[in-house]
Amino acid sequence: MGVLNRADIDELMRETDYSKKLVVTPLLSEAQIGPASIDIRLGSSIIIPKKTYVEKQDITDPDMIRQVEQRLYDRRRLKYKSKFMLHPNQLILGVTFEYISLPFDVCCVIMSRSSWGRLGLVVATAAFVQPGYKGCLTLELVNLSESPIALYPGLPVGQLVFHEVTAKGNKAFYTGRYDCPTEAGLPKFFEGDADKEMRFWGQRHEESP
Amino acid sequence: MDPAVLYNRLFSFHELTELLERSSTDHISWPLVSYCDDIWNSFFGSDGPKIFYSVTSVHNYSILPFSKLLTFYVRDLLPSAVIDALTADRELYCLQLASSEDANLPLYANIGHEFGHAIFDHREAELVALLNSKLASLLPQLDKELQGIDASQSARRYRRMAVALVNIAQELFCDLIGGILMGSAFFLSLYEISWGQNKAGWNISLSPNDGYIRAYPSFHFRLHCLKHSAKVDEFCNETGKELARLNIPALKELADSLATIPVFHDTDGLNVFPTSDSDSGPIGKVIRMYLPDIKKALAEYTEACDGLVRKWYSLPIPSSLHHDVAELIQRLEHKILPSIIPDGTLLGKQVHRTKSCVCKQVLSQNVVQANDSLRSRHPANPNLLRQHAVAGTRLGAMDLARKACKFYCNSKCVCILSSPLTC
């Protein structure tokens, strides 16, 4: 599984067939394209988990998860030039400024930029993006340092590293639960057949003596 | 104050409070309203009246003069000095729009029409004077007919008829604003929102209080007037050619679909109610008699307003950009934000830089709205997930186009950009 270099990225971005085209938009500068990655910026939509006394978040309990979504998250839009302070050990969900569209034979990984990493900012814990994905990417921003970090929408906080997927004639398009999002998204645990399995394991756990 | 009056007034306060409660919700599409804020500021500036947004479940969009209503409801309850202090220089409107999950959200091009009401409020004197000039030859004839029916009642009936005509003219003015701002998108939205209603009926609803008289021209007549101001034929002819070359079946039909929307209004009828009002019969009879002449005058009035509005406000109009529009639609077809027009370079041509920022945001929105509305009317399209994706990308398109515009317009970003700013 090779990493795409600048020439490969360039070629895919200039592709005219939209089903094979790599799209990262809006790209404000060609300088965002590095030797083997594209820098991405922080968007203005964020979700802040509220401080809570909830005993636990049990993702095998759909009712609980729904309540958590409604009660325990605060959605905000940051104005440009305004800062948001990410405090030590705080997690927020952000979104990329850029909207991406991956061809069926390319996947990517979101990585922190090393300067931010050295400051203690993690930009993505669920970093893998499936081939064929379209949308803005939700970022899980965590401050692992000892002091607050000021974040401004528009700052380049991460980078995308692209990998070739050997499709072997089988065009596996992304059909997951996050389709074309343009804002930061809450987790969606109970969509799709895989989550019936989660419910199964949760119930079995309660039934056992 | 009489207790019954106070009791009724409390219901009115409750309605205003509900408006506020429904304005702080995740169900408002913030990309959409921030786009609307830009348009509002382009009309009224940062010192003018403000607007906030509230969710409604009604199959319509509407705008309310919130601060005026509040002042009206608190009269006789608070001292005038207190009321003046509360509302002085704080004019506030409320736009009610569909929630993010509502099937009516794709009809947001109607917001342009609603903004027209606020503009009409502020330019009422000039616009009514213009209307008077267009109806100058008709009004004496209408008065004469009313006097012929019953001279003792004609003054009141003439006054109420005039209020109705002003209301009708206001609706056409608002359609003009909607067409200027949203183009073919508003044309489609207006047609969609007329679903289930009698499209050939002019309606006048009388009230003992002239301020509560409501009057609307027929949808056919409105669409007829709008077709010209929104340049729908140009969109169909020129952009249609570009869409045809893309070889995407649904898009090939887009231009034809717009062209088939009925705008024939010669068989329009008029309803004046309530029929229990003794003025409804005479007013209805006189207006029906002169309806063709009234329509002609109103069409001329709308055209004159077009020139006035362009003189008052610098509103650039997208034109000769049919290739760009087709490219944007093609991107949307592939669930990619229509924010870039390919031009052979790596970055492409940013939509907002093609002409002016506002113009290009409108263009993107026109494109995506037109495409989305076509989908909703195309019975063979069962792909609901795709529609949902289109809805997301559409709103994201506006949001990102606006954000990118702000970056380019900020001089501090020059150092990180290789090409000169044009905005």
Provide a descriptive summary of the structure in words.
The complex is a heterodimer of chains A (209) and B (423). Chain A has 209 residues and is of the alpha+beta class. Chain A has helices at residues 6-14, 62-71, 114-119, 194-207, and strands spanning 23-25, 38-41, 45-49, 73-77, 84-86, 91-101, 106-112, 121-122, 128-129, 134-143, 149-151, 156-164. A 4-stranded antiparallel β-sheet of chain A has the order 1-6-10-8. A 4-stranded antiparallel β-sheet of chain A has the order 2-12-7-9. In chain A, strands 3-4 form a two-stranded antiparallel ribbon. The model of chain A has no long low-confidence stretch (mean pLDDT 81). Chain B is mainly alpha-helical and 423 residues long. Helix content of chain B is 60%, strand content 8%. Chain B contains 17 helices and 8 strands. Chain B has helices at 3-21, 30-44, 66-74, 80-87, 111-122, 124-134, 139-149, 151-182, 184-193, 219-229, 232-245, 249-259, 280-289, 291-312, 322-333, 357-377, 384-409, and strands at 50-56, 62-64, 92-98, 201-205, 214-216, 269-273, 340-341, 349-350. In chain B, the strands form 3 sheets. Chain B has a 3-stranded mixed β-sheet, with helices on both faces. In chain B, strand 4 and strand 5 (214-216) form a beta hairpin. In chain B, helix 1 runs antiparallel to helix 3 (66-74), helix 6 (124-134) runs antiparallel to helix 14 (291-312) and helix 11 (232-245) runs antiparallel to helix 12. The longest helix of chain B has 32 residues, at 151-182.
